[in-house]
Amino acid sequence: xxxxxxxxxxxxxxxxxxxxxxxxxxxxxxxxxxxxxxxxxxxxxxxxxxxxxxxxxxxxxxxxxxxxxxxxxxxxxxxxxxxxxxxxxxxxxxxxxxxxxxxxxxxxxxxxxxxxxxxxxxxxxxxxxxxxxxxxxxxxxxxxxxxxxxxxxxxxxxxxxxxxxxxxxxxxxxxxxxxxxxxxxxxxxxxxxxxxxxxxxxxxxxxxxxxxxxxxxxxxxxxxxxxxxxxxxxxxxxxxxxxxxxxxxxxxxxxxxxxxxxxxxxxxxxxxxxxxxxxxxxxxxxxxxxxxxxxxxxxxxxxxxxxxxxxxxxxxxxxxxxxxxxxxxxxxxxxxxxxxxxxxxxxxxxxxxxxxxxxxxxxxxxxxxxxxxxxxxxxxxxxxxxxxxxxxxxxxxxxxxxxxxxxxxxxxxxxxxxxxxxxxxxxxxxxxxxxxxxxxxxxxxxxxxxxxxxxxxxxxxxxxxxxxxxxxxxxxxxxxxxxxxxxxxxxxxxxxxxxxxxxxxxxxxxxxxxxxxxxxxxxxxxxxxxxxxxxxxxxx
Length: 540
Hints:
- Helix content is 34%, strand content 21%.
- The protein folds into two domains: 5-152, 3-Layer(aba) Sandwich (Rossmann fold); 168-538, L-fucose Isomerase, Chain A, domain 3 (Alpha-Beta Barrel).
- By secondary structure, it is of the alpha/beta class.
- The N and C termini lie far apart (51 Å).
């Protein structure tokens, strides 16, 4: 008889999230198990449902180690992800597992298994762990069933990544090479500081750049404590916090308030977010930071409202002025202070480079990461195209939104993840040319993928539908990635996060992409260009 296939399910650290998401996970597992058993294989679930916790997830590193002690090291292992997961809960076991590993995600907006899968895959890529991967809406399509059959037969799955080409395959414009080279040399000579408010958010091992890879680029970490950020918040006066709120009101930001702080946004939560914004700017200035990242989700979530409003403001050039305690010159005046959500250091390095390239070119330098949250086909300009849903809890700057601040809405974060509330900075990203990118680590090598894309406008009812099936409180971008299909993106992208920045038009986007690629290359990163790059001459 063929050996049994072991199945593991990794989840959140937060009990409320695991309880709410368990029914979706159970449904996905049942479908995957049915598909495996139809191939005459037996499935052994590696860990039991916990009736006290009311879920069957691996919910901590401790629990993960207990589970992996009972999994034969040579057994075929399937990791099914229907929700967000903390990769460090099971990364330790995957390091030493000798049998074939298959990660599987549900293709769903409501239940972000594909987001969790991309993070886990990126973490395993960084760790040098071999794996295969599949994704499906209902686990009955030919792509999934054929891939599963081949994996069960002992084949390692290799998906199409022909959209990825090394930078050396192209001849970059002389101006782009000059700009990128000059800025890279300046960065290495003058150095820059990345402020990190506690490392390792939500188990995102792939989001931590080892110092020995980061330092040659000219960037060095200032390791900051979120306890210091909270202490700094407590030093901000009520009057100072109210000034930020008044500034936002004058700009036209609409706050959706309610009466019950347990489930609604209340003014006190917003004022605390204003305190966080002021404290973050002051600490960044004190330590000379060029970019900062707040972890929030662990520790700070038990002390303060969400960091999202503060993050979005930091990433905007036009933002409320902040002065040192006691008064003085405005800190970072007329500049964005790039913030990388969830302290994703790969996004932080990317944001810093983007800010310098875009500023040099005279383009709006606002940039943010988004989750690759979901996507499906829709008719755009008379043609059916695959349109991604890019969403992120925080960090999206109002400059990206239709209407700017006047088009921004702040809604309470979902209590499942954000017990103490706090408002988002929500808006619809304006149509336009964008450059997307991702810095990642592959077996000890710092790499960067870059591509061109278009943020597109969809009918109001379609935007609302997409919000309803994802997270309606969060900012949204509808994106089309020419030359990169859904499955190609999933096969290649080594993170749940994707970095985006606007350019004035297509020609400007090409110059920005080329300059950024040249700068990354000069900094020592292994650079690839992805998808359709019209206007660049290939060398072959």
